[in-house]
Design brief:
With about 350 residues, the chain is of the alpha+beta class. The chain has helices spanning about 80-90, 110, 130-145, 150-160, 220-230, 230-250, 255-265, 270-280, 305-315, 335-340; strands at about 10-15, 20-25, 30, 35, 40-45, 50-60, 65-70, 70-75, 95, 100-105, 115-120, 175-180, 190-195, 205-210, 285-290, 295-300, 325-330. It contains 10 helices and 17 strands. The relative contact order is 0.16. The protein binds adenosine-5'-diphosphate (ADP), ligand DP6 and cobalt (II) ion. Adenosine-5'-diphosphate binds next to strand 11 and helix 3.
Length: about 350
């Protein structure tokens, strides 16, 4: 290290949005590398709403790697954090900050320790994909700090080893996680299907009915399904491959009727308000989907429908009621105010 003093600190901050799967990843073929049993497709939310902000710092005065999540120190000893740290460190390259007189060589990164502070602006482990935004941001911010020269897809394969859904948050817009074939996972990565501008009409509402930590984590729910469900293999081999192709087509053509039908079909819970409404209108207005938890994600075909939907939600779940519904709007904040 070219700097004489031990007092310097180099800091990077990054922000990463969460993503919500419309064709879901559910089941692993390799638990350690996090390799899925099927492809999945998601929409990345707007970073102004549901996101993780992570600050990573390096200094010769740090004597171990440490992390704080939402202000509380957590252990980095778990295999997932260690895999991501190892993969990023092994790709680190020289960093020079002339102003501060800091020069860090590739070899120095093996000896230096990092401190990581991460904050989710939405409920953690409550079924709104905090692990997706969290691990994507973890990998992205460390890669920036350590000057890792890899494209986003390569980084996504590292984030995948933190949490499967995290690989998709490295891109905006519509994203596909290709399951891959390799045993070592090098081809199990995310690619962008369409960017943020492609289908600008869509409005995503996230109805937070509970901020409580879900009882079953995605990891253990998935493990249980793989071990006990005969249907899961059928879903992975027969159902999802067809749905993926149909969903790619629906996104390409901005075909909301197909998009809504496929999204709802792939989600394992039913919202009667949405279903009744879609039936009464004759043509779908809203799609709903749930991750592993009680909180609903609703996708409206346009801003007008989103405003109506929000009114209905506020009617069924008035603010300050037991349901404690907070609505986050992706795309246009003003609708929330108009409808309120
Ligand atoms: P969720 O539905 O929120 O994704 P999961 O059970 O899949 O729930 O994952 C929750 C776990 O993700 C947390 O216990 C924590 O280990 C990890 N996680 C959440 N937020 C972050 C973050 N900002 N940085 C790193 N890891 C995070
Ligand atoms: C229902 O990515 O949270 O949200 O890989 O074990 O961390 P791990 O699980 P996670 O599972 C997400 C499941 C899902 C569907 C999806 O996002 O595709
Ligand atoms: Co998760």
């Amino acid at each position: 290290m070219a700097s004489e003093s031990q007092n310097w600190v180099l800091v990077v901050t990054a922000r990463t949005p969460t993503n919500i799967a419309v064709i879901k990843y559910w089941g692993k073929r390799d638990e350690k590398l996090i390799l899925p049993v099927n492809d999945s497709i998601s929409v990345t939310l707007d970073p102004d709403h549901l996101c993780t902000t992570t600050t990573v710092a390096v200094s010769p005065s740090f004597d171990q790697d440490r992390m704080w999540l939402n202000g509380k120190e957590i252990s980095l000893s778990g295999g997932r954090f260690q895999s991501c740290l190892r993969e990023i460190r092994s790709r680190a390259s020289d960093v020079e900050d002339k102003e501060k007189g800091i020069k860090i060589s590739k070899e120095d990164w093996e000896k230096l320790h990092v401190h990581i502070a991460s904050y989710n602006n939405f409920p953690t482990a409550a079924g709104l994909a905090s692990s997706a935004a969290g691990f994507a941001c973890f990998v992205f911010s460390l890669a920036k700090l350590m000057n890792v020269n890899e494209d986003q897809s390569k980084l996504s394969a590292i984030a995948r080893q933190g949490s499967g859904s995290a690989c998709r948050s490295l891109f905006g817009g519509f994203v596909k996680w290709i399951m891959g074939k390799d045993k070592n996972g090098s081809d199990s990565l995310a690619v962008q299907l369409a960017d943020e501008e492609h289908w600008d009409d869509l409005v995503i509402l996230v109805a937070v009915v509970s901020s409580r930590q879900k009882e079953t984590s995605s990891t253990s729910g998935m493990r249980e399904s793989v071990e006990t469900s005969l249907l899961l293999q059928h879903r992975a081999k027969e159902v999802v491959p067809k749905r993926i192709l149909q969903m790619e087509e629906a996104i390409k053509n901005r075909d909301f009727a197909s998009f809504a039908q496929l999204t709802c079909a792939d989600s394992n819970q039913i919202i009667s308000i949405v279903e009744k409404w879609n039936r009464s209108e004759g043509t779908p207005q809203v799609a709903y989907t749930f991750d592993a938890g009680p909180n609903a994600v609703l996708i409206a075909r346009n801003r007008k429908v989103a405003a109506l939907l929000l009114q209905r939600l506020l009617f069924y779940f008035p603010p300050n009621s037991d349901a404690d519904l907070n609505s986050y709007i992706h795309g246009d904040k003003s609708i929330l105010q108009d409808a309120g």
